[in-house]
Amino acid sequence: MEGGAYGAGKAGGAFDPYALVRQPHTILRVVSWLFSIVVFGSIVNEGYLNSASEGEEFCIYNRNPNACSYGVAVGVLAFLTCLLYLALDVYFPQISSVKDRKKAVLSDIGVSAFWAFLWFVGFCYLANQWQVSKPKDNPLNEGTDAARAAIAFSFFSIFTWRSRVTSAP
Question: Which residues form a coiled coil (predicted)?
Answer without folding.
Answer: none
